[in-house]
Please model this.
Amino acid sequence: MSIQTGDTVIFRGGVIPEQIKYSGSDYPSNLIIGKTYVVEGVEQTSSYSNITLEDTRGKFNSNQFQVA
Model:
């Protein structure tokens, strides 16, 4: 299931530096593994998806999350 705007997601961690660099996402140093967040927006390309979260600065690779 792909992540959509308005979904509640759980941050899984599993950060891969090369993936962050390739997707142009931000390093999720301010996110907590296991915590839930609400998706504010989704940026989809043919190779990856970055998401923004409500009340959180930055855009993050969607592979680091699962739908709650």
Notes: The longest helix spans residues 17-23. The radius of gyration is 11 Å. The first strand starts at residue 8 and ends at 11.
